[in-house]
Please model this.
Amino acid sequence: MNALQGQQAASRPCAYCGKPVPTRMNRCPSCREEVPEVRLSARSGQAGRREIRRGLMYMLLAAVIYYFTGGYSALSLPFTLNPLITEYLAPVVFLGGLGMSLYGLLLRMRS
Model:
């Protein structure tokens, strides 16, 4: 019984005739058709997690930039900054981080 299970484990069914084909062979010995080799992808959710984390860090950076350059903190900067930083840079960084987080979620759902 064990020899039969070992033989079945070392073979796969032919896609055309259904008969067992040894895994070392690329063609079915019965119907002579090429048996396609199925490979599983090695993708994991790591890329999605990385993009989500990166996006959240950019969103946090934008919030810190906006907080300190917008004059909302009790601390004052010893130098003056261009108001374009508050008006354009912080929202662009925040939206970029939001986009990266959404892309990471998309990658996680696909994997």
